[in-house]
């Protein structure tokens, strides 16, 4: 289909919006197995940022899959499409000047690289929630691992679907870190990048 599209050059830039907000925008991307602590740490970090008067928004797997990404399953292709839509959404939100916290299993390296490429020149901070499968299985708050054991789920990440761990994550959170420790680690890393006014 031939399209005639002429993007308009709007006058207010992202830099103008950052100035108004008093900080830069960043994308903080949490990746890890189900139960690794992505949502918990994103939640605690958002509270810390909020208390510092930093504008934030959270994009979280389960929430996004109920709306923007409704109908996408957990095949490799659908997961890539899920992450692609989130990357586009994050890109728009970053242009508004907010700090975006995104928590997605995002098991494929190429998908995470796609996110980083999509949001450039904005800053991508990859947080690897390095919680072992053993601990995630023990937590199993949603009962997904038990369902996989019974053969009721065929593509659970870490069990019968792959997880490609980041090799050079900006920040690694281990299963021994409490949520508070994780927040402290992340905040220390991003503080300068926020360029607080
Ligand atoms: N098969 C399978 N594999 C992984 N996760 C599953 C699966 N089925 C359902 N769930 C639930 O979906 C949440 C993960 O969605 P994501 O959008 O983050 O996944 S992905 O990035 O597209 O891989 C995930 O949320 P978290 O537990 O917060 O990670 C689960 O609640
Ligand atoms: N740092 C932590 N230490 C101990 N338990 C945690 C920690 N982070 C999360 N949990 C617990 O693990 C479970 C799964 O956490 P959640 O944040 O939902 O993980 P994810 O979003 O990666 O699926 C929850 O019951 C949560 O309370």
What small ligands are held by the chains? 3'-phosphate-adenosine-5'-phosphate sulfate, adenosine-5'-diphosphate
Radius of gyration: 18 Å
Query: What is the spatial order of strands in the main beta sheet?
Result: 2-3-1-4-5
- The secondary-structure element order is HEHEHHEHEHHEH
Strand-residue fraction?
5-15%
- Low-pLDDT stretches are none
Overall mean pLDDT score? 97
**Strands, total number:** 5
Tell me the overall shape.
globular
Count, helices: 8
Derived from helix and strand composition plus strand pairing, the structural class reads alpha/beta
Helix content: 40-55%
Q: How far is the N terminus from the C terminus?
A: 47 Å
Largest sheet: 5 strands, parallel
Task: Write a concise synopsis of the structure shown.
With 197 residues, the protein is an alpha/beta fold.
Task: Write up what this structure looks like.
The protein has 197 residues and is an alpha/beta fold. It has 8 helices and 5 strands. The protein has helices spanning 14-21, 38-51, 61-65, 76-95, 109-119, 133-139, 144-149, 179-190; strands at 26-31, 56-60, 99-103, 123-130, 171-174. It has a 5-stranded parallel beta sheet with strand order 2-3-1-4-5, sandwiched between helices. Helix 2 (38-51) packs across helix 8 (179-190) and helix 4 (76-95) runs parallel beside helix 5 (109-119). The longest helix has 20 residues, at 76-95. It is globular.
Task: Outline the secondary-structure elements.
Elements: H1 14-21, E1 26-31, H2 38-51, E2 56-60, H3 61-65, H4 76-95, E3 99-103, H5 109-119, E4 123-130, H6 133-139, H7 144-149, E5 171-174, H8 179-190
Parallel strand pairs: 1-3, 1-4, 2-3, 4-5
The protein binds 3'-phosphate-adenosine-5'-phosphate sulfate (PPS) and adenosine-5'-diphosphate.
Enzyme class: transferase
Keywords: ATP-binding, Kinase, Nucleotide-binding, Phosphoprotein, Transferase
Family: Belongs to the APS kinase family.
């Amino acid at each position: 289909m031939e399209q005639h599209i002429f993007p308009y050059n709007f006058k207010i830039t992202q830099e103008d919006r950052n100035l108004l907000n008093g900080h830069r925008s960043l994308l903080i991307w949490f990746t890890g197995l189900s139960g690794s602590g992505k949502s918990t740490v994103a939640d605690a970090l958002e509270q810390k940022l909020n208390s510092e008067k930093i504008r934030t928004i959270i994009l979280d797997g389960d929430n996004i899959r109920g709306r923007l990404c409704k109908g996408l399953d957990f095949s490799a292709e659908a997961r890539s499409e899920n992450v692609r839509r989130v990357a586009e959404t994050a890109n728009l939100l970053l242009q508004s000047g907010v700090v975006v916290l995104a928590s997605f299993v995002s098991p494929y390296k190429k998908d995470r690289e796609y996110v980083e490429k999509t949001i450039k020149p904005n800053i991508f901070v990859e947080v690897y929630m390095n919680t072992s499968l053993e601990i995630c299985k023990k937590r199993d708050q949603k009962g997904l691992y038990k369902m996989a054991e019974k053969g009721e789920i065929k593509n659970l990440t870490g069990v019968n679907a792959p997880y490609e761990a980041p090799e050079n994550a900006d920040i690694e959170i281990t299963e021994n870190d409490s949520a508070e420790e994780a927040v402290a680690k992340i905040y220390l890393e991003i503080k300068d990048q926020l360029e607080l006014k």
